[in-house]
Amino acid sequence: MNMVFRWFGEGNDSVTLSQIRQIPGVKGLVWALHDIPAGDIWPLERIQECRRIADKYHLHLKVVESVNIHESIKLGSPDRDVYIANYIQTIKNLSTIGVKVICYNFMPVFDWIRTDLFGTLPDKSTALFYEKAKVENMDPIELVNRIATNPEYTMPGWEPERLEALKELFEAYLTVTTEDLMANLQYFLERVIPVCEEYDVKMAIHPDDPPWEMFGLPRIVTTKERLLEITSLVDSHYNGITLCSGALGVRKDNNIVEMIYELKDRIHFAHIRNVKLFNNGDFIETSHYTADGSLPIDKIVKAYHEIGYRGYVRPDHGRHIWDEVCRPGYGLYDRALGVMYLSGLWDAYQLSERVGETDVTNKHKLKG
Ligand code: DNO
Ligand code: MN
């Protein structure tokens, strides 16, 4: 398993690189220049500086999450070409330090959405929580106040500049249909993917979280059918996906195991996490352990093993446990437990493939 771990950068994360380096099996960071506004070019010097920092800890930087897409690209506005050109320059700059996968999303206005960053689980740990009834009656501005201004860190996807023009953005999206959004994604991919092929950097779209329309805004990365459609917009290996089990798995009609088998060649990055679904439509994130949530994490890892998955994997969000003070969803402890659970499952599947061999080895040992 190519295990990687998300890190938000020096001064922007409670977790340190020396801690990450001590998690067994973690070889690389999932990183980003979080202070660069969507649409701007990521400067080469800043990228190289990250390289130097990570080098000290022998961690690679092959996976970026995310290079965010400017709203003009999603809206299909006349100025989108400027932002696409900038995106292309960023891809080229990132390739110089060996970046291989760029995770991005195509959600209008908002990134992931929850109603409470510290929902309580039965064991008294806390985790990101989504209360359906609350969202249905909520003004998006209230949501911004809950998520964007709550913790001491800027939440990924809730950067202030993204939210400044909220009212105008909502108006701009009034006439954008799901078909328009899909066409705008295609326009973007048609320009970017040839560059990705040339520079050997794979694009990996992240599903919408949650995967349904919210506040009247269209959302297109929601189901297996949509993912298949997206991967065929530009038929290239470089037009791939980030298969996020937790984001997609909150829809009961999404079968993650089936998606792994059908989308296999195009999965370049796997986010694996569990989530507990309630009958009223609410959900809360849980530990990665299969028995703790509603998703078959054991079968999901088995499916990756069976397709011979060689892409990158990260534990996704974690709970807040053992009194850790951290970014919501991104503490050290529960994600490190997640790494060990996922790697343990993987090793067990690996071993079960070689049962015969193991027996022989044991016999030799006994004889010897
Ligand atoms: C939140 C993350 C998202 C994700 C982006 C990918 O913790 O799952 O912000 O990184 O949607 O582009
Ligand atoms: Mn994810």
UniProtKB/TrEMBL annotation:
- Which InterPro entries is this protein grouped with? Man_deHydtase, Xyl_isomerase-like_sf
Q: Which EC numbers characterise this protein's activity in its record?
A: 4.2.1.8
Enzyme class of the recorded protein, top EC level: lyase
Coiled-coil spans in chain: none
Which catalysed reactions does the entry list for this protein? Answer: D-mannonate = 2-dehydro-3-deoxy-D-gluconate + H2O
Pfam families reported in the protein's UniProt record: UxuA (PF03786)
Keyword entries, A-Z = Iron, Lyase, Manganese
Range of residues in the leader sequence: none
Q: Please list the cofactors this protein needs.
A: Fe(2+); Mn(2+)
Name the GO terms of the biological process aspect.
Answer: D-glucuronate catabolic process
GO MF annotations in UniProt: ferrous iron binding; manganese ion binding; mannonate dehydratase activity
Q: In which pathway does it act?
A: Carbohydrate metabolism; pentose and glucuronate interconversion
* Family label: Belongs to the mannonate dehydratase family.
Protein function: Catalyzes the dehydration of D-mannonate.
Query: Which named protein is this?
Result: Mannonate dehydratase
